[in-house]
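S1.2 Input.
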Amino acid sequence: MVTVPADALARIPDELSPADAAPMGCAGVTTFNALREAHLPPGSRVAVYGLGGLGHLAVQFAARVGHEVVAIARGTDRQHDATVFGAHHYLDATAGDPGRALAEPGGADLILGTVPTSGPLSALLPGLRLRGRLTLIGVDGGALQVPVAQLVMNAQIITGHLTGTPVDIEDAMRFAAAHGVRPRTEHLPLGRAGLAVDRLRNGQARYRFVLEP
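S1.3 Output.
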């Protein structure tokens, strides 16, 4: 048994299984809120950098809201998945300059950085539109190199974002239930939690692990 404050709980919609709801308390609400707080009108261009546990949900939420979605990842092995999740375009970050590739069709209104590394993010800044926003969700101990003149002259925003409240989690789950957003999960018994952690460290998660008793 466990006792928790009532205001720390979130009600799960009947349409979501416990396994589908589990990632919504972290990856789901984080990406949902990051999109919502950007206050973009439907039809805006949203680029999602990284197609992992966070990114695959960000692509789905952005597509269901009605945005034009560009998924950016290293290599082409996730291109098919990106299309299934709802991305309209896919950029292989190893095949060229992703910032320039984003800029060619007019740039992105929002770039969501979902990878836990800051190194490649500076290269994406040329891909922002006038008044565009780069929102950082992935975290590491690095630094971001920012061309200040570009930031000022284009009135652009760089911001961080961290999860949400239980009420936000309920909002994310209700939206997911109504619009068919589902995490892609791999289930392991609780006794194999160590294996799940090892595979996460090695980049072998596709896309979220759910541990079951």
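S1.4 Remarks. The mean pLDDT is 94.
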